[in-house]
């Protein structure tokens, strides 16, 4: 059995929310726990001539709707393909959505030229997650080990210019969070015609917790901060709410999104 909680917030000193959060059991009968989850962090909504926020096209929302529609249709019509080739299906859906976003940009560079987004997503089936990532949103795993200690690890790797500097030994990992190039993406949607995807599959164990965040959270709060928040709250709802609140109090100028999923005994 799985429990989940998520929240997206306009955050600190922002005009509107360009983040997108989605989680749904694709099995309408709920006999199977086949969850599709994604977090996207969009950019470029303020481009264009239309100043009415209600009329704006938000790139992350556009992408999220397109990706969820494609995968939901595959699930309804040929779920065995999704079961057999989950990562390939994720890649296909995201690539198709990326082309849709590209169509907007080609249609009007003035209105949509700045459109881009990160994505971190997964499909859960038979207690295994199959994930796809591009950009600098993140997926973490908190696991209880056999000796009753815990391990909190970042499964994805930021695809940014600053991460490249860390990998090359040109800056220290601790300096990553103050380096302006942490916001310069080496992969993402709307930025590249064929973005580089990080993918993987991980079997989940009882009491595992998955945490997916946009950079409004993890650039404000350290990995240890996030781990402590999970430990010190009794429910997923409370933990997610504290992450948002603490990130806002940090005055990180960004939207903020956190999604948690827990494998219950």
Taken from the alpha-carbon principal axes, the silhouette is globular
Structural class comes to alpha+beta
Largest sheet: 5 strands, antiparallel
Total strands: the figure is 10
What's the gyration radius in Å?
18 Å
Strand content: 25-35%
Amount of helix: 25-40%
Mean pLDDT: 92
Tally of alpha and pi helices? 7
List segments where confidence is low: pLDDT < 50 over at least 5 consecutive residues.
none
Strand order of the largest sheet: 1-10-9-6-7
Order of helices and strands: EEEHHHEEEEHEEHHHE
Terminus-to-terminus distance: 7 Å
Topology:
Elements: E1 2-9, E2 19-25, E3 35-43, H1 59-84, H2 86-107, H3 109-112, E4 116-125, E5 128-134, E6 138-144, E7 150-154, H4 161-167, E8 198-203, E9 209-213, H5 215-218, H6 223-232, H7 236-249, E10 256-263
Antiparallel strand pairs: 1-10, 2-3, 3-4, 4-5, 5-8, 6-7, 6-9, 9-10
Helix pairs in contact: 1-2, 6-7
Description:
The structure is a single chain. With 265 residues, the chain is an alpha+beta fold. The chain has helices at 59-84, 86-107, 109-112, 161-167, 215-218, 223-232, 236-249; strands spanning 2-9, 19-25, 35-43, 116-125, 128-134, 138-144, 150-154, 198-203, 209-213, 256-263. The strands form two sheets. A five-stranded antiparallel beta sheet has the order 1-10-9-6-7. Strands 2-3-4-5-8 form a five-stranded antiparallel beta sheet, with helices on one face. Strand 4 and strand 5 form a beta hairpin. Helix 1 runs antiparallel to helix 2. It is globular, with a radius of gyration of 18 Å. The chain starts with a strand and ends with a strand.
């Amino acid at each position: 059995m799985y429990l989940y909680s998520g929240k997206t917030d306009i955050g600190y000193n922002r005009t509107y929310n360009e983040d997108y959060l989605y989680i749904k059991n694709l099995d309408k009968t709920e006999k199977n726990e086949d969850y599709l989850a994604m977090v996207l962090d969009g950019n470029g909504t303020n481009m264009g001539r239309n100043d009415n926020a209600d009329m704006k096209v938000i790139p992350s929302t556009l992408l999220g709707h397109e990706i969820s529609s494609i995968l939901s249709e595959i699930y309804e019509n040929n779920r065995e393909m999704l079961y057999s080739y989950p990562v390939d299906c994720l890649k296909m859906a995201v690539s198709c959505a990326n082309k849709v976003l590209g169509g907007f940009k080609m249609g009007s560079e003035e209105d949509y030229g700045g459109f881009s987004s990160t994505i971190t997503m997964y499909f859960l089936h038979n207690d295994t997650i199959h994930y796809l990532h591009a950009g600098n949103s993140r997926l973490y795993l908190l696991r209880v080990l056999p000796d009753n200690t815990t391990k909190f690890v970042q499964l994805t790797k930021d695809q940014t210019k600053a991460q490249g500097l860390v990998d090359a030994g040109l800056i220290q990992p601790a300096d990553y969070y103050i380096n302006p190039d942490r916001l310069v993406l080496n992969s993402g949607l709307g930025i590249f015609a064929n973005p580089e995807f990080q993918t993987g599959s991980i079997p989940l164990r009882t009491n595992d917790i998955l945490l997916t965040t946009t950079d409004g959270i993890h650039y404000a709060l350290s990995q240890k901060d996030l781990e402590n928040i999970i430990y010190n709250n009794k429910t997923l709802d409370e933990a997610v709410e504290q992450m948002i609140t603490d990130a806002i109090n940090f005055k990180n100028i960004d939207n903020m999104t956190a999604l948690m999923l827990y494998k219950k005994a």
